[in-house]
Design goal:
Blueprint (H helix, E strand, L loop, with lengths): L2 H4 L6 E4 L3 H6 L1 H13 L3 E3 L9 H5 L3 H14 L5 E4 L2 H10 L8 H12 L1 E3 H8 L12 E4 L3 H7 L3 H8 L5 E2 L15 H4 L1 H17 L4 E4 L2 H13 L5 E4 H6 L14
Helix pairs in contact: 6-7, 6-9, 8-10, 12-13
């Protein structure tokens, strides 16, 4: 056996799609994602040229801006084996909607389809692509888990985070009565329909509190920020974190919506 045959094969080269909210509001989620991916054997890079996934523009009907952003992303993530995002919403945009953007441009359409096929949400990538079944995390807490709409409905993310959370030593997870019901965020929905959104997040907060959990987890920062804000306004003691932070054991940052040292 020669040295090439005996040396271990390098892990996949992953381009981390950080997401706007992680970049601006919760960098700890990005660091947790890097740790989880590296622990799973990946080589992780963060292309500096990446921008927004285009979802706000896409949902607002601004096709030109969406296409311009996506063209830039296709170039920025060229050559990576996979593109991974710690967000079901952004990953859903990249994987589900990008292939349909360039119907009148066959050359770009082919590149867009190939790019979309390499895009994955973080926890789904760990479980479904890399075959991760456990992480060496430990946390003595009682948690509940919210299924974010895009991840659940566009990417079929349901069992994957629960599978990994089951292996976190000391963690108890209690399901809400309606974990799949929208929290009322919906990106621009909460701006366009604030009264409806507020009622939805109030219902969600009551469901969360009804579990008796002291920790709320989910995979989308927009939903988490929305729920954290409403829980705080209700005077709830429930803490809120991105699931990646718990799975990676990256808990130095304060809970979402809480000041440092609170």
């Amino acid at each position: 056996m020669n040295s090439a045959e005996s040396s271990p094969r390098p892990g996949p080269r992953v381009g981390l799609f950080v997401t706007c909210l992680v970049d601006l509001f919760r960098p700890s989620v990005g660091f947790a994602a890097v740790k989880l991916l590296e622990d799973a054997g990946c080589t992780v890079e963060v292309p500096e040229a990446q921008t927004c996934c285009g979802q706000p523009a896409f949902n607002s009907g601004d096709r030109a801006t969406t296409e311009a952003l996506v063209r830039g992303l296709i170039d920025a993530f060229e050559g990576y084996d996979y593109v991974v995002a710690p967000s079901g919403s952004c990953a859903g945009m990249l994987r589900t909607h990008v292939p349909d953007l360039f119907e009148d441009d066959p050359a770009t359409a082919a590149r867009a389809k190939e790019f979309a096929g390499r895009c994955h949400e973080l926890v789904s990538f760990l479980v479904d692509v890399l075959g991760v079944r456990a992480v060496p995390a430990q946390l003595e807490r009682h948690a509940t888990y919210h299924d974010s709409c895009a991840g659940l409905r566009e990417l079929k993310i349901k069992r994957q985070p629960r599978l990994l959370l089951e292996g976190v030593a000391g963690l108890t997870v209690t399901e809400m009565k309606e974990p799949e019901v929208c929290c009322g965020f919906g990106g621009t929905f909460c701006v366009k329909y604030p009264q409806v959104s507020t009622k939805m997040v109030d219902n969600k907060a009551a469901d969360i509190e009804g579990t008796g959990a002291d920790l709320l987890l989910a995979g989308d920062l927009g939903c988490l920020m929305n729920m954290a804000g409403r829980l705080a306004r209700r005077g709830s003691a429930v803490e809120v974190r991105h699931v990646a932070e718990v799975l990676a054991g990256e808990l130095d940052a304060p809970p979402i919506g809480r000041p440092a040292g609170a």
